[in-house]
Amino acid sequence: MTLFSSPEEHAANPPGTWEVHKVTERLWKLRTAAGTDLDSFTTRKAAEAGKAFGWLVNMYVTDGRWYAGHTPTGQRSWAECKAEQEQRRARAELRLVEGYAAKFVAETAGSEPPRHVEPTDEVFAAMFANCVRVPPVDMYDEIRAAIPALSRARHDRPAPPHVSAWGESDSWSA
After folding, report:
1. What secondary structure letter does DSSP report for 83?
2. If you average pLDDT over residues 32-39, what whole number do you get?
3. pLDDT tier at 160 (50, 70, 90 boundaries)?
4. Which residues pair with 24 in a beta bridge?
5. Domain interval for residue 137
6. Mean pLDDT computed over 121-128
7. pLDDT surpasses 70 at 113
């Protein structure tokens, strides 16, 4: 666990910039300049002391060393964590792109009647306008690139056998 998610955020929020805010009569919060609550105290004196020493300041110093490359025994380095974070972000974006491409294929590759819809920016904008998370325009090229693989997968899949209203299969293999 770290106080901040990146070395840049860490450097922008040293203990000297933390502020003490009164919430109620017996509740004081220690906050970053950006408004992130770091800890709660019952007195102003304790909150002010939290800015100068204590577990938060110790953690800030330890985090700074970790970001600088001094990895404590038994922990992974910042470089390893950052690489893993970037891999997760890339996988999440790929899943998102594939999801948009699957939506396009499902809505445009109907078999009755057969039709072909060109994946233009205008078609994408209209199709994705009502999505909870509308893809940015710069993602359209990635979505276009994912469509052929999904279209092939859809057409390579065997059609399900037709079943009559009485539950009997019309296929010869049944």
Report:
1. H
2. 90
3. low
4. 27
5. 86-156
6. 90
7. no
Burial track 18-36 (b if 16+ CB lie within 10 A, e otherwise):
bebeeeeeeebbbbbeeee
| Alpha carbons 110 and 90: distance in angstroms, whole number | 31
- Do 140 and 96 lie in one domain? The reply is yes
What is the pLDDT averaged over residues 69-98?
90
Asked whether residue 114 falls in the same domain as residue 149, the answer is yes
Please report the pLDDT score of residue 107 as a whole number.
79
48-54 own/partner pairs: CB under 8 Å, 24+ apart: 48/20, 50/18, 51/15, 51/16, 51/18, 51/20, 52/15
pLDDT at 42 over 90: yes
pLDDT at residue 174, as a whole number: 46
The mean pLDDT of 37-60, rounded to a whole number, is 93
90 and 151 together in one domain:
yes
Q: Is residue 149 within 8 Å of 109, Cβ to Cβ?
A: no
Peptide bond into 113 cis (omega under 30): yes
Q: Phi then psi for 163, rounded to 5 degrees? A: -115, 130
Token couple for 45: 């004196």
Name 19's bridge partners: 31
150 Cβ contact partners less than 8 Å away, ≥ 6 residues apart = 98, 101, 102, 105
Rounded to the nearest angstrom, the gap between the alpha carbon of residue 53 and the centroid of all alpha carbons in its chain is 34
d(CA 127, CA 132): 12
Task: State the total domains in the chain.
Answer: 2
